[in-house]
Amino acid sequence: MENVLDIFEERGFVEQVTDRFLVSRMLEKRVTCYIGFDPTARSFHAGSLLPIMALVHMQRSGHRPIAVIGGGTALVGDPSGKTEMRPIITREEIRENAVCLKEQLARFIDFGEGKAIMVDNAEWLTRLNYIDFLRDIGRHFSVNRMLSAESYRARLETGLNFIEFNYMLLQAYDFWHLFKHYDCRLQMGGNDQWGNILAGADLTRRMEGEIIHGLTFPLLTTSSGIKMGKTHKGAIWLDPEMTSPYEYYQYWINQDDPDIGRFLSLFTLLPMDEIQRLRRLQGSDIRKAKEVLAYEATRLCHGKAAADQAQKASRELFGPDASAASESVPVYRISRGGLESGIPSYILFEDTGLCKTRSEARRLIAQGGGYLNGQKIKTFDQLISAKDMEDHSLLLRAGKKRYMKVIPH
Fold first, then answer.
1. Do residues 91 and 50 touch, judged by C-beta distance below 8 A?
2. What is the DSSP letter of 221?
3. DSSP for 319-372?
4. Is 290 in contact with 280 (CB distance < 8 Å)?
5. Per-10-residue mean pLDDT for the chain, 409 residues long?
6. Is-contact 278 261, C-beta < 8 A?
7. How many CB atoms lie within 10 A of CB 247?
8. Which domains are present in the chain?
9. How far apart, in Å, are the Cα atoms of 258 and each of 48, 249, 253, 261, 289?
């Protein structure tokens, strides 16, 4: 079987690795690896997909992934990549979030007997005795070396508090703990975690005399400079109740042309020769590659049935019969009484979330970007009422790609 490090490099997963030769040699045999996920929200977002997909590739290559839910480290807050301290959330919130994240990870990774492990670092971190921790663990850390880490250096200008300063020690302790109890020899994470990963490898070397390794992924942005997983409406969530499968599909199909090949490599499991074929498509044919990306990404996250439905809805809305509306399109429910008397179009566009504000809605419609049932809305205050319904609903469109089905109740 192909070495998973070669797969990572070919697909664009690798930013840094502790020792490429030794890691490649190590991965010739079955290895246990881990990635940590702090449960600071009830859902992952699309920006979390890179580490999740890395665990998928590890498992497909015969290795054993450990997904660490950071119930303990979330009580402290990781300063990496942040210009200010993360909000401290309660243990109850952390527990609730962790349950949701575990369900989402199980869509991507098989946690069957011996195939993968899911643990919560609160199980060991919250039981630590502080004095013993300082004596046994803290003595191995150089403050000067810690301050040279990018995650701390960047925060010194805005202020780094003591609780955050402990984060590196706790993550290093995680790596050592997983090595001791699960023979975990590889930690992976975003490139902002490089200093924390090295700290864990160094701690294990000092305490156990063993060499363990780290690998980091690039911090992704789109070609337009937007952070991965963000849109004008906010984060793209993996929870279908927070971002519907249709909206998830639309997020991927609307990516910029220069990003499609890269995202096919990172966020699908298609063979690389097929991805290279799709990369070569030019002009209007790029739409076919975008559709493949959207379908495969949605299928991995939400399953085949949801991907089929989202694809069908997208083809109906953006195909020759653009007035058709599938049940997969996002729905806004409105009181029948309110619709009977009529609502100015710019107010309805703001109420449905197609525009953030009424002034934005007025501009959109004035510039010819607002549509009702496939017809351009003539004026920003054009009344929309029950008389405009087709098949017991209204279909609003903002610009070329954002739809909302309005159903009275």
1. no
2. B
3. SS-TT---TTS-EEEE-HHHHHS-EEHHHHHHHTTSSSSHHHHHHHHHTT-EEE
4. no
5. 94 97 97 93 93 98 95 71 57 86 93 92 90 86 73 67 77 96 97 91 95 95 77 81 90 92 97 96 92 97 94 74 54 83 91 90 92 88 88 83 83
6. yes
7. 20
8. 4-217 (3.40.50.620), 230-318 (1.10.240.10), 331-408 (3.10.290.10)
9. 21, 18, 13, 7, 11
**8 A C-beta contact, residue 62 and residue 30:** yes
Residue entry with tokens 């060991």? 124
Place of tokens 């090595």: 179
Cβ contacts of 138 within 8 Å, gap of 6 or more: 169
Instruction: State how far the alpha carbon of 246 is from the alpha carbons of 91, 250, 400, 403, in Å.
Output: 33, 6, 16, 10
Q: Which residues contact 173 (CB under 8 A, 6 or more apart)?
A: 125, 128, 133, 137, 200, 203
Amino acid present at 60 = R
- Residue 87: helix, strand or coil by DSSP? coil
User: What DSSP string describes 105-135?
Assistant: HHHHS--STTT-EEEETHHHHTT--HHHHHH
Rounded (5°) CA angle 189-296-36: 20
Can you give the C-alpha Rg of the chain in angstroms?
24
Q: What is the pLDDT of residue 339?
A: 85
User: Are the C-beta atoms of residues 334 and 406 closer than 8 Å to each other?
Assistant: yes
